[in-house]
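REQUEST ID: PR-0412
SUBMITTED BY: lab tech R.K.
PRIORITY: routine
TASK: structure prediction, single protein chain
INPUT:
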Amino acid sequence: MDIKVSAAFKKQTANAITAIILFIVVYLLLIVGAIFLTLLLGSVGIALILLKPSIFTLVIGVGLASVGAFILFFLFKFLFNSHKVDNSNSIELKASDEPALFNFINSIADEVGTQKPKRIFLTSDVNAAVFYNSSFWSMFLPVRKNLRIGLGLMQGVTRQEFKGILAHEFGHFSQKSMKVGSYVYQVNRVIYNLLYENNGLGNAMEKWTAISSYFKFFVQIAVKIIQGIQFILGKMYAFVNLKYLALSREMEFHADEVAANVAGANNFSSGLLRLHLVEHAQQAVLNHYENLIEKCISTTNFFTKQHFVIEYLSRENGYNLLNGLPMLTLSDLGKYNRSKLNFDDQWASHPSTPDRIKAIENLNLSLLPDNDGVLAINLFKDPKQVQEMCTLKMLTAVTYVNEPEQETDAAFEEAYDQMMQQYIFSKKFNGYYDDHKIEIMDLTVAAKHDTELSVQDLFTPEMVELVYQKNGIEADINSLSDIVNHGYKVKSFDYDGTKYDIVSVTDLLLQLKAQFETHQTAIKKHDEAIYATLRKVAVKQHKELVYEEHYQLLFEAEKFYKSNLELFTGLQDAFAFLNDVTPNATIVANLEKAKPLEQSLKEAYQFLLQHRFLLQNIISSDLHKSIETYLNNELTYFDGEKYNEENLDHLIVCHRNIMYLTSQYYSKRRKQLLDFKASLLEA
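STATUS: complete
OUTPUT:
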């Protein structure tokens, strides 16, 4: 297979080569300077010793020579550094055990025109990657690559889609034109090693100063010179890295083209579009079992649960299912995204998924049918055995107090559905409340709202669209504000198809804030109209008092949230001194000053515990113990000389969890109100 590289790829390759050459020039100049300095200091040291032989001049001479030696050691240490990939969480597969899988993978390597992988490893991840243990010499010596495949990925794609994903990985190494990417990567690794991986140098300096305290002075000189060199290399790292990332994005487009030619553009795109959902499903199952560690509940098969979640989320989102897998489109990915802001992220290593899909579509390749639609996991001889083996590998890092109970698929499915029902709102709302918070309003005034709406007019597609437009404007305001406030290096950007330079950000922000206010006002008026309309329905059902109470409880939860957010920040500031070396008298004074805030924290927890019926299965037994200890005792954190770490732990746990529990309480009150409103509509 011979795919022509694009003009953009050639341009970024030239830029990357220029960056490499510039680095080599700078690095050689640093080496020449270091050698000259070493010879100079060594000559001065020898001259001192010869001029006046003594222990004192010997120490000075050796010390001067050591300055140059340390600098040279710093500049050449990368030659002996190797980057080894950690495979401890992986299972190595053998061709004798999985002949069908190995034949499948080897045939893809042949079709792409690259070497077959030396070794193949299985992980639980939603990912596939070609990797190798690299060193500086990898740029010049042939190195066979290994392949890592994720069972979480194979659980969520068909065999043909999996073929495309593997072809993409092999595509990175299929052509000589891709070799420059490896060179730039290795140069980046060299600079990174010089900047951040200096444990060996530090240990050598410590041992040297341990020989004689006089050598400490010379080590400090070497450190200062090395810091100067690192400053120069830091600038080079940013420059080379920027060129590497730009090339990396073009390499991704190129590898995508390889994949589309091998597996079919339609098949590679469908797998690519589904990856985020598959990752989300896996994370949901991980979260479920992390929360059950304390209860000693585990599973023998993680991946059947992952597949259930994929199907569950697909049904909830209305995705079309084919062979048990959702067939997503580009519009599904941006369903709720109304942002009109677009600028290139120059620090991204990969293009965005929409950009990749559009590039694949522009290839205009003929479609290849996915005839069987069989999951990639069926490439294994015994998929169930592999799932259980991989699950066991995942759980080796987990420690249970007792022998864990194994949760069945049916029990998991019931528990997951119950959990999801807490966050899913009635379809009658048409998604209006999915990403919209009801603002506090005067219910007496809202009840007299003069807009006459029928129940059918409450949650129209037009109003739902208005909500997401407002959210999109708000997101764009935040992004542009970050550019202004944090000085992000963006030369220009597009907004709604119009190109702006960085100077125009302030004017655009004013326009967007005005648009946001207009949208927000319209939505608030509509929320009042919703309240008034459904209140009339509640009156007919003799439920108006319950209806009003649900609104009041939500507004109280909103105020509680805002109050606790302010409290959280105040406590964070008040106890910041714990991270610093602080005089004893100041510690005592700071703790005394923080007592009113602690009292407010206790009152907040007392309120939450009074409403614990809303927080079932959210407050763990360990967290509850810490809360009870904190509430029922006047904890002393400092005895005048040292901290009481156990008592501080209770304080830290309570501070860390207050906003999580508060947000959960708010969500429960919101869910209660929306469920009640749905019941009014259904009656």
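NOTES: Residues 559-670 form one domain.
REVIEWED BY: pending
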